[in-house]
Amino acid sequence: MNKKIFLLIILFQIFGLVLSSSLQKYESIFNFGDSLSDTGNFLLSGALAFPVIGRLPYGETFFQHATGRCSDGRLIIDFIAEAFSLPYLPPYLAVTEGQSSEHGVNFAFAGATALDAEFFYERNIGSILWTNNSLNVQLGWFRKLKSTLCSNKQACDDFFGKSLFLVGEIGGNDYNYAFFLGGGIKQLQATVPLVVGVITNATSALIEEGAVELMVPGNLPIGCSAVYLTLFQSPNKADYDRHGCLKEFNAFARYHNDQLKQALTMLRQKYPHVRIIYADYYGAAMRFVHTPLHHGFYGGILRACCGGGGPYNFNNSARCGHTGSEVCQNPSLYSQWDGIHLTEAAYRYIALALINGSYSTPPLIPSAL
């Protein structure tokens, strides 16, 4: 990495600055996923499953008001947009009301699953779904919008040739719903190939629609999440790693990620003209789990900033934003926001790791490395 690029990345890390106009590579971004990247679709839909994201303290750090993001501020997708001098992605449901989509659109929907809702209803766990807007539904939204972006194959190839497509993170909720209802790890391992298959099929479908640059993220280390640490507390110290995370659940996340990486390798062979980037959310997040003070997380790594008490400040009967919960004074000192989602500070570190190439394979900006 040359000195100029290194200094620009350091500035981005400290101040959240764009990398450089000379590095602008993409003219639009299209994002698919769940609450890790939803910039307002869930809120705009009027869904009632998680209404607290429509009011403070959600959004307090950067926007100073709630935006429908499940965090105190910006998300990974926001930092990626900033890095390429692009505006924050409008949620799809805002675009249908007339907002511009020339620089891309966000189809992500909080609570979304990779697998279609029917899969969960057939297994009698559909009643807890936040939404039926699965990855395939989001893909349908993209196809519906496509006709407004370009009128023929050549125009679409030109437009999407300058676009970045993010397919996820998604799949985490497929496992969350089942785990929270008592599903076992071995039982859920059988679901992983199905989830990975849907993600890779959607990636393939987007390529067929004209996408040539795609980033597909893996899952976060759920064994370090306050909600998992609270719901699956164990009296056995051997169940925890030296950082206090639940080993078995992190191993499950790695299993999903390994399966996804293998599937992406096969996709690259099928589409040699396309750049398919694996985004290692797990590895990027584990950096600050391993060295929290180095990353400025003096408030804690395993405790949520906003919550209703307990050893990890996660209380399912007094979740962030609900009566009985309190928010920490400085969210930037914490990596976890509400016990399920991360803080803006944590998302910034993960985004930087993807942008500078240390946790994206191949690097997001090859010319910079």
UniProtKB/TrEMBL annotation:
Alphabetized InterPro entries for the sequence: GDSL, SGNH_hydro_sf, SGNH_plant_lipase-like
Instruction: Tell me the domain of life.
Output: Eukaryota
What Pfam families does the database record attribute to this sequence?
A: Lipase_GDSL
Q: Does the keyword Cell membrane apply?
A: no
Point out the signal peptide segment.
1-20
The answer to whether keyword Hydrolase applies is yes
The protein's UniProt keywords, in alphabetical order, are: Glycoprotein, Hydrolase, Signal
A Gene Ontology molecular function term for this protein is: hydrolase activity, acting on ester bonds
> Which family is annotated?
Belongs to the 'GDSL' lipolytic enzyme family.
- UniProt name for this protein: GDSL esterase/lipase At5g45910
- Please tell me the species this chain comes from: Theobroma cacao (Cacao)
